[in-house]
Amino acid sequence: MIGRYFLASRQFEVMKRCTIFSQIANFCRKVLGKEDGEQSMESPIPARVAGQRRTLSRDQHPISRKEISENALKVLYRLNKGGYDAYLVGGGVRDILLGRTPKDFDIATNATPEQIKALFSNCRLIGRRFRLAHIVFGRDVIEVATFRGHHHQVNTSKHVSAQSDEGMLLRDNVYGTIEEDAERRDFTVNALYYSARDFTLHDFEGGIEDLAQRKLELIGDPETRYREDPVRMLRAMRFAAKLDMTISPRSAAPIKELAPLLQDIPPARLFEETLKLFLAGDGLATYKLMREYGLFQPLFPQVAALFTPHGTSPFEQFIELALIDTDTRVREDKRVTPAFLYATLLWGCVEARARVLENESGLPWHDAFMLAINEVLDNQVRIIAVPRRFTTDVRDIWALQQRLTRRQGRHPERAMEHPKFRAAYDFLLLRNRVERGLGELASWWERYVESNPDVRPQLQREATRRPASGEHAQAGEPRSGDGEKRDSNSRSRRRPRRRKPKAAQ
Fold first, then answer.
1. Which of 38, 110, 334, 483 could form a disulfide with 466 if both were Cys (CB 3.0 to 4.6 A apart)?
2. pLDDT in tens, 243-266
3. What whole-number distance in Å separates Cα of residue 95 and Cα of residue 85?
4. pLDDT value at position 15?
5. pLDDT > 50? residue 347
6. Could you confirm whether 186 is annotated as catalytic?
7. How far apart are CA 326 and CA 331, in angstroms?
8. Whole-angstrom distance, CA of residue 120 vs CA of residue 259
9. What stretches of 31-127 adopt beta strand conformation (E)?
10. How distant is the alpha carbon of residue 385 from its chain centre?
11. Cα 274 to Cα 272: distance, rounded to the nearest angstrom
């Protein structure tokens, strides 16, 4: 039944994608003509000229105000009324053209952040590296950015740009024209501007053609643009996976060589980027692209050290299964958490390090395991600044894996009372899909969780008293014959030795 459901869902998704891209193809045929270089008789549109704006009127593109959020329209109208140029730009325009429902609506304008704030009482200015205005409507936030200019302009107090020796942008508050702003965008498909004033669509870099060809093309010289902001390489992975596009050979060529530049990105920013990469519904496809282009190793070196040439180890299968489940939950609008993501990504590292500590130092398994947790998390947060509230949850999920092997007495009920029990339980079931010897333990917990309190004592009596796979007998800790750990305070009783009778004098 479940298999049929997922098959039907997959078929529906494929059909939907085919329909979407058919619509795009039809739109582009209308724009570009039936053949290359041929203008459409139905809609005479100026041919594309490199570096020049191409403007499409309302009858030449499919974007409607009905597809734009009411709050985004309010911002556009007020900026226009205030005497400023304002355009819907980026992902919002791109997604509408792709037949998707945009999650965010971003606006670009020639008004400065201070001028924007003067127009909106519900505005707050954020960012230092990139100065932005956020117009807040309850939970809905419309991001407004001033047109960016080129960096050769002279720095002033309000127009500041700074670069590192490697070419990375440290500060980028140089303002310019809409043409310069389009050149400063990352990909051609994100350099499309929609005006609510006259309902026109403006294409500066050939984004419409690239959407039709399902091609992700970086604007400008790829190496220079990646050096300006190495995160653009991660964005290329994310958009290619999300939009089902192919990264153009020109844009892909420098990525592997420049991948180490990600180590220079602030750890806090990388945390936000990883959430976009893996928790947006396309985590598995993104993960595979990152491995292919060498971008996963700089972010997760401990994990990459355990990879095999063919990617078929149980640990690698575990990561892929976790990402598949996460993608499914996102599509079903179920809750996902960064803690579970990082718990799955780093699990193999913890187990591997714990085994090394246990064998080399002779530590009991529990001590080795807890020490490994500390080491692995400390190493990871130096690269990606995972907030403490999430690392605490990661520790709980891992620690509960040991507690779940203890099924006698009050242990099961106490484990279920833990706030992270459900996450740890799901984690155990996921492990069971790739790790050997966990079947009996996972099955027992499934029955225990689903049963009523009256049945649970019987399940405890039926539980095997042998340590389950993954439950290590801690060195130096005696166990009784049934596998249960003895009370550390109890003394080992020995049968008194019989004394030999004294020899007769």
1. 483
2. 999 999 999 999 999 999 999 999
3. 22
4. 47
5. yes
6. yes
7. 9
8. 41
9. 54-56, 86-89, 106-109, 123-126
10. 14
11. 6
d(CA 111, CA 443): 62
Question: What pLDDT is attached to residue 232?
Answer: 96
Residue 75 burial by CB count (10 A; 0-12/13-18/19+): exposed, middle or buried? buried
pLDDT at res. 409: 85
Q: What's the pTM?
A: 0.80
Q: Which residues in 147-205 belong to E strands, given as ranges?
A: 160-163, 169-173, 192-194, 201-203
Phi first, then psi: what are they for 270, rounded to 5°? -65, -30
What single-letter amino acid sits at 94? Answer: R
The token pair at 142 is 């419309």
Higher pLDDT, 390 or 494: 390
Mean pLDDT score, 22-51: 51
Q: What distance in Å separates the CA atoms of residue 66 and residue 120, rounded to the nearest whole number?
A: 23
Does the annotation mark 487 as catalytic? no
Q: Which DSSP string corresponds to 46-81?
A: PPP-TTS-EEE-GGGS---GGGS-HHHHHHHHHHHH
d(CA 429, CA 434): 10
Catalytic residue among 95, 106, 327, 393: 106
Quick check: 314 and 434 in contact, CB under 8 A?
yes
Q: Which residue has the higher pLDDT, 66 or 28?
A: 66
* Catalytically annotated residue among 95, 172, 186, 393: 186
Please state the CATH superfamily assignment of the domain spanning residues 48-213 in this structure.
Answer: Beta Polymerase, domain 2 (3.30.460.10)
Put residue 387 in one of left, alpha, beta given phi > 0 → left and psi -120 to 50 → alpha: beta
95 is annotated as an active-site residue: no
| Residues paired with 485 in a beta bridge | 479
Which residues in 292-326 are b (16+ Cβ under 10 Å) and which e? Answer: ebbbbbbbbebbeeebeeeeeeebbebbbbbbebb
User: What SS3 state is found at 467?
Assistant: coil
In angstroms, how far is CA 192 from the centroid of its own chain?
25
Domain boundaries, the chain: 48-213
408 vs 480: CA distance, rounded Å: 14
Cα–Cα–Cα angle for 281, 392, 313, rounded to 5 degrees: 55
pLDDT in tens, 424-468: 999 999 999 999 999 999 999 999 999 888 888 888 887 755 444
Distances (CA, A) of 104 to 90, 91, 143, 245, 406: 10, 7, 9, 20, 47
